[in-house]
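ARCHIVE CARD
CATEGORY: sequence design from structure
SOURCE FIELD: tokenized fold
FIELD CONTENT:
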């Protein structure tokens, strides 16, 4: 049975229809396009009617719904996406509207300029309209995420009594501080729980890690090792995250990777304290692979005991060779900080992604800038 999303946007029908057709590829999602009603009361009623028809598993909305008049009555909406989302979340808490994901689909400048921090928690996912660069991004990224969100909300609703069940793993291997924080949310609305799982587990490296970080921690250069990389992943199938929202975010459990390193690879050293070349040799020997190759250090780096990925150039990095980036003061204990390499920091590579180094790193960055200016 297809998953049903309602998409509300005041953009031109032709342009919005392009998004609808992209999301409907493969027939796994049905998307109903609607221009915003003139008042939020009318819009809420429309949403409730869709719910009664059992045709609402999620909502996609633009941030600015009041830019253009709708074609039905020639009026502009007198509300924005944030106020509509706030009203829906309030009614979901009151149980007059069922819980479902809300996706913000808007232009990047609108998101950064108009959305206050307090409004960010209303939405499960942000999709920038500018990110739609071709049909493949729907199939590879956005369709899986929308499916994951709709099905994930159902799982959360069914596991209200024991939230740790949504992780689909033996809880004994999971950091008990994370499990405690999760179970403390048991009486909260589903969107609060979903927000915590997405933003504090899936989108942060630490307890779970993504493919790039996994490759860095195994010391493997993915591009050079494409022939045998899938064999490595197959060996790590037990570590693959299969919990709530897994379809939209491919992740691996770090505690199980550590177990795999000891019991499958039979390494004689701690993974964290092993060089990339030695990690690869251990893996090649135990998995009987020949075509995996170690990652190389970046310029201005000393260590190849890689543990993270540079936010500037997406290459493996040992945090000792990096600079912590800004706005990470309130990480949970199970989360790892993000870093930018010295090379990327000096050249301001992709600075739009990492913005600034942390305050405690500013003096060190100045010293590095002065040092490398003298050496030129």
């Amino acid at each position: 049975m297809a998953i049903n999303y309602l998409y509300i946007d005041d953009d031109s029908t032709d342009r919005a229809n392009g998004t609808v057709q992209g999301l409907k590829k493969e027939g796994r999602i049905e998307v109903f396009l609607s221009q915003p009603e003139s008042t939020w009361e009318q819009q809420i009623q429309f949403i409730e009617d869709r719910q009664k028809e059992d045709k609402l598993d999620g909502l996609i909305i633009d941030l600015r719904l009041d830019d253009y008049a709708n074609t039905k009555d020639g009026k502009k909406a007198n509300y924005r996406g944030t106020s509509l989302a706030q009203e829906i979340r309030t009614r979901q808490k009151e149980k007059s509207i069922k819980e479902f994901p809300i996706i913000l689909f808007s232009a990047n400048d609108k998101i950064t300029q108009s959305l206050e921090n307090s409004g960010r928690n209303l939405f499960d996912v942000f999709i920038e309209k500018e990110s739609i660069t071709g049909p493949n991004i729907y199939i590879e990224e956005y369709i899986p995420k929308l499916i994951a969100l709709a099905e994930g909300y159902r799982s959360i609703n069914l596991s209200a009594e024991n939230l740790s069940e949504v992780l689909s793993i033996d809880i004994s291997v999971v950091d008990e501080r994370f499990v405690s924080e999760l179970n403390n949310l048991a009486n909260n609305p589903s969107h609060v729980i979903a927000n915590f799982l997405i933003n504090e587990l899936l989108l942060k490296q630490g307890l779970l890690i993504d493919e790039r970080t996994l490759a860095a921690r195994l010391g493997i250069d993915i591009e050079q090792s494409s022939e045998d990389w899938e064999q490595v992943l197959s060996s790590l199938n037990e570590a693959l995250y299969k919990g709530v929202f897994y379809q939209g975010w491919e992740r691996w459990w770090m505690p199980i990777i550590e177990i795999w390193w000891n019991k499958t690879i039979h390494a004689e050293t701690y993974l964290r304290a092993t060089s990339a070349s030695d990690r690869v040799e251990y893996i090649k020997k135990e998995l009987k692979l020949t075509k995996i190759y170690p990652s190389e250090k970046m310029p201005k780096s000393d260590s190849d005991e890689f543990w993270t990925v540079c936010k500037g150039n997406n290459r493996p990095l040992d945090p000792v060779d990096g600079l912590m980036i800004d706005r990470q003061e309130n990480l949970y204990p199970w989360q790892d900080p993000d870093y930018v390499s010295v090379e990327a920091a000096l050249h301001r590579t992709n600075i739009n992604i990492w913005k600034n180094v942390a305050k405690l790193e500013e003096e060190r960055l100045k010293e590095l800038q002065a040092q490398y200016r003298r050496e030129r």
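CARD ANNOTATION: The chain is about 40% helix and 10% strand. Residues 3-157 form a domain with the Rossmann fold fold (CATH 3.40.50.2300).
SHELF: design records, drawer C
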